[in-house]
Design a protein that fits this description.
There is one protein chain. Helix content is 27%, strand content 28%. The protein has 16 helices and 30 strands. The relative contact order is 0.14. The structure holds one RNA strand.
Length: 563
RNA sequence: CGGGGUGUAGCUCAGCCUGGUAGAGCGCUACUUUCGGGAGGUAGAAGUCGGAGGUUCGAAUCCUCUCACCCCGACCA
């Protein structure tokens, strides 16, 4: 590509509304432009990269035996009503009507569409297993789109759906996809982790996420420092600590007129935060209230709590009136003493003796409280978020909390959708069978942002070779002074083409400083400078994007670098 | 949805408090001198001041409404 004929609107200044580095660099490099909140137009440079990511994903999916299809972004609401997700999905699902007032949705995922496709065309066990995928734009009406293409409202996703006769075959394909994803992210040059995850809105049992490690990631991950254990904080298990010490203190009421948090009470009394217990009152599955007890220095894990059989899902906090009715005081002075409502204690809270908690009386807490004496022995569960330094659940090493960007997610959702949509096939015996299914997503457009988060420096983007817009940039210095310079550059450009190496020729006639700055900003891995000076010496000037110095190479040695 | 903030040239922003001829830097166009790390000079194009209504002799500026965009907030007891 000749840059003189390419649309490359680079910016020197950072657009005001871009917060994170990938968003800033994508705007500055002229890869994307914003159209509306969370909606972007991909410019030629950005699209080149996006297409490369897409191509790698497609290649590996094909290699894994999946079959590509393409479904519309616009889906009849009926299908979503049939699966039950029309009612379940929140306002993130964009609903719209056509001119005949028929209801449609903009697809955020395609379980229904593909399952419907299978229901229509797959009749026999002989047609299974099958894995259908597409690479298609999706739409999610995010509450708060941000971070450019990392959390946009429309996004390019690879989504695959597999259908099987048996759970064992689903497990086989799940592993196949897991390996495929590892190949894809490795080819993309990313530092990633496979983590245990919650299945969330899609539903299902076995599920893992693929995360690119980056400070700007929106998800917290707990990873072991001594094994390959890694889990999304939402599901990272915590282990019960050792046995509870014996009670030594007696229960004593203390005045805490304005201290409504464990932090404030601990500070007032001069005791460690980890000796306090807080209650979080939530709605129970049976309609009553349930109190969740946590150590003061821990935070509630809503995903874990909502999975507890006595807790209403989704998690719903009790309101002020309910708390007042049950405890006789406002939130801020609650405690398990007196057993106002059934208590489920996190393992760490349950292991405390002589703890501090609310007195269930405005303005008072108690010290020296003990389970089984001042409060009923509570039911125990894992309810808290893991913290840095917790022992790893697999018994090896300690957990460290890091941040990640979710770029892939694989699920075994079983017969969830096939049953809802009434998919059946005939088995060998002529008997009707409901297939079991899996689904597998990759955020293609998000990957572009995630790569930049991992691969950039002060000058701009540093593309991994696999997805760089071009592998090499040929920079021409002062071509007007000497016709031989541009002739040599043209010849070099033609030679790269002959060798099948993607090159761009910077023939824009910019001054060298501006030209180099642009080429570095857009992250081209290799740069070759053609100048009078070099021609006289019979060399070209080569510099890798991460190098700090250039080297003079003759033609042969230059091309050897691209072998 | 709640709280906060911002809308003025393609980009980054000043001007608004205290109403009175629309501004700067970068970018863009032309010419010119330059020519190896975002050059200098000269000349120039470019804004319904987000929109509507109101107050006023007069509104970018004050008031009301509205739209768009950004940030913060969903774990507390």
């Amino acid at each position: 590509m000749r840059l003189s004929r390419f649309h490359l609107p680079t910016l020197k200044e950072v657009p005001a509304d871009a917060e994170i580095v990938s968003h800033q660099l994508m705007l500055r490099a002229g890869m994307i432009r914003k159209l509306a909140a969370g909606i972007y137009t991909w410019l030629p440079l950005g699209l080149r990269v996006l297409r490369k990511v897409e191509a790698i994903v497609r290649e590996e999916m094909d290699r894994a035996g999946a079959l590509e299809v393409l479904a519309s972004l616009v889906v009849p609401a009926e299908l979503w009503q049939e699966s039950g997700r029309y009612a379940k999905y929140g306002p993130e699902l964009l609903r719209l009507k056509d001119r005949h007032q028929r209801d449609f949705v903009l697809s955020p995922t395609c379980e229904e569409v593909i399952t419907d496709l299978v229901r229509r065309d797959i009749r026999s066990y002989r047609q299974l297993p099958i894995n259908l995928y597409q690479i298609q734009w999706k739409f999610r009406d995010e509450i708060r789109p941000r971070f450019g293409v990392m959390r946009g409202r429309d996004f390019l996703m690879k989504d695959a759906y597999s259908f099987h006769l048996t759970e064992a075959d689903l497990e086989r394909e799940y592993r196949n996809m897991r390996e495929t994803y590892q190949r894809i992210f490795t080819r993309l040059g990313l530092d990633f982790r496979v983590v245990k995850a919650d299945s969330g809105a899609i539903g299902g049992d076995r599920t893992e996420e693929f995360h690119v490690l980056a400070q700007s990631g929106e998800d917290q991950l707990a990873v072991s420092d001594a094994s390959d254990y890694a889990a999304n904080l939402e599901v990272a298990e915590t282990r019960p600590p050792g046995p509870r010490p014996v009670a030594k203190s007696t229960l004593r009421k203390v005045e805490t007129p304005t201290q409504k948090t464990c932090e404030a009470v601990a500070a007032l009394l001069g005791v460690p935060l980890a000796t306090t217990v807080k209650l979080i009152v939530v709605k129970g599955r049976d309609g009553g209230l349930v109190a969740l007890a946590l150590r003061g220095d821990h935070t509630l894990n809503a995903v874990k709590a909502a999975k507890h059989p006595k807790v209403a899902a989704p998690l719903a906090l009790a309101d002020d009136a309910e708390i007042r009715a049950a405890f006789g005081c406002e939130a801020g002075f609650l405690g398990p003493v007196g057993d106002k409502v059934p208590v489920i204690a996190d393992h760490a809270a349950a292991a405390l003796a002589d703890f501090v908690c609310g007195a269930n009386e405005a303005g008072f807490h108690v010290t020296g409280a003990n389970w089984g004496r001042d409060a009923a022995e509570p039911e125990r569960a894992d309810l808290r978020n893991a913290v840095d330094g917790d022992p790893s659940p697999d018994g090896q090493g300690r957990l460290k909390l890091v941040r990640g960007i979710e770029v892939g997610h694989i699920f075994q959702n079983g017969p969830l959708y096939t049953k809802a949509l009434g998919v059946t096939v005939l088995d060998e015996a002529g008997k009707e069978l409901t297939p079991t299914a899996g689904c597998y997503g990759i955020g293609v457009s998000r990957i572009v942002g995630a790569v930049i988060e991992q691969c950039h420096d002060a000058a701009g983007i540093v593309w991994p070779e696999a997805i760089a817009p071009w592998r090499v940039a040929i920079c021409v210095i002062n071509p007007k002074n000497d016709a031989r310079v541009s002739a040599a550059a043209e010849e070099l450009y033609a030679e790269f083409a002959r060798r099948g190496i993607e090159a761009c020729l910077d023939d824009r006639g910019l001054r060298p400083g501006a030209m180099f700055a642009d080429i570095e900003l857009i992250g081209i891995p290799h740069r070759v400078v053609v100048s009078e000076r070099g021609l006289a010496a019979g060399t070209f000037e080569y510099r890798g994007r991460r190098d700090t110095e250039s080297v003079a190479l003759d033609r042969e040695r230059l091309f050897a670098r691209f072998a």
